[in-house]
Amino acid sequence: MDTFLQRLVPDELWELFQRVVPSAPTRPQGGGRRRADDRMILAAIVYVATTGCAWRQLPPVFSASWRTVNRRFAEWSAARVWAELYRIILDELGARGELDWSRCVIDSVSVRAMKRGN
Length: 118
Prior knowledge:
The chain is 49% helix and 0% strand. It contains 5 helices and no strands. The longest helix has 15 residues, at 81-95. The protein has one domain. α2 (11-20) packs across α5. By secondary structure, it is mainly α. It holds the Pfam family DUF4096. This is Insertion element IS402-like domain-containing protein.
């Protein structure tokens, strides 16, 4: 994994993520395309979340289509992966004193509401 992707999903985050992500479904008939790598998909999701880029504008460095990344995001959201990951991060890093709460800033953020059909 190159340096750019390693920064998006460091080993420590990947280890925590593996504890909460559901196992990949297996297709009984076999065949088809090889499943895109979970770590690469997670890096693409982190990229979208941190840059504000649209799913359709994902750079090709992630080696997966935006549809694949978006679909996996939806699957993991339905499986409550993000909530579990958040809980583990707070529990483990907080218990070890590795969270620096003094750097947490909460401010108001304006989010534009989408009209129906847009």
